[in-house]
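# nightly structure sweep
# worker-07 picked up a monomer target from the shared queue
# config: single-sequence mode, recycle default, output format = structure tokens
# input follows
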Amino acid sequence: MIRSLTFIITLLLSLSCLAQKVKPVEEELPSENLEMRKDSNKRSNRPKRKNLSLIYVPNADNILYGNPCVTEATHKMGFEYIVEPTNLPGSKTWKGKFLNNLWVKTKLVVTRSPFWKLILNKKIKKCRKMSGDLVG
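# output follows
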């Protein structure tokens, strides 16, 4: 009897903890605003974030995945490479990947330049030389 009563009280106390109101993350964390005259926790003063498009590739050859210099260069262009093998369960179909990549690359041709790939390869080569991945 005492064990079951203790169990019920413990259960009710744990359920009351779940019922507490959870604040959104933007209310918990202050923004990165450093100006003294502005309130740092307003939505309008939050730093602007870029929405990055994703380009799916089957392997990590020639993209230097994990190199911070290359990641920064691709983010400046507005996209990021995602390595997703073709046989991975739960991944996008080849048609979905193809259509996504076609859309992102078309957007890059329009927004950046028709030569965006050549420009990026030049930046990647420079990053490889700076990080020691490429000698010469």
